[in-house]
Structure to design on (119 residues):
């Protein structure tokens, strides 16, 4: 893979993970309340805007990435986002990593490695 493809791939992972984490931070605020008050609280916090900005930028990066690699390869390489999110969720939100989840992460990582090397 060229340096540009790798850079776009890593940017995609970073932006997707950042967007998901920002949305989780906005949605998981214990002070948010319920119903309409919850949405009002989430809209007043920077996390929601940050998540949306990450997704808009990710869209541009993803299109650029897909313009350089075949779709089947791009989608498989993009699945590493699952691993990044699970690890980030563990460290930032204290989410559990069960044996089954770790096994899934290892399988996804192995698949991405195979696609990356075989490409």
């Amino acid at each position: 893979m060229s340096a540009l493809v790798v850079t776009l791939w890593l940017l995609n992972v970073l932006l997707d993970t950042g967007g998901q984490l920002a949305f989780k931070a906005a949605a998981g605020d214990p002070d948010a309340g319920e119903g309409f008050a919850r949405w009002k609280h989430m809209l007043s916090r920077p996390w929601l805007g940050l998540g949306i900005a990450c997704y808009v930028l990710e869209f541009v990066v993803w299109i650029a990435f897909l313009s350089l690699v075949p779709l089947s390869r791009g989608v498989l390489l993009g699945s590493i986002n699952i691993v990044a999110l699970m690890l980030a969720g563990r460290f930032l939100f204290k989410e559990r990593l069960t044996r089954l989840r770790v096994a899934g992460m290892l399988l996804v990582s192995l698949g991405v490695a195979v696609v990356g090397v075989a490409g």
Q: What stands out?
A: Residues 3-27 form the longest helix (25 residues). The two ends are 8 Å apart (CA to CA). The mean pLDDT is 90. The chain has six helices and no strands.
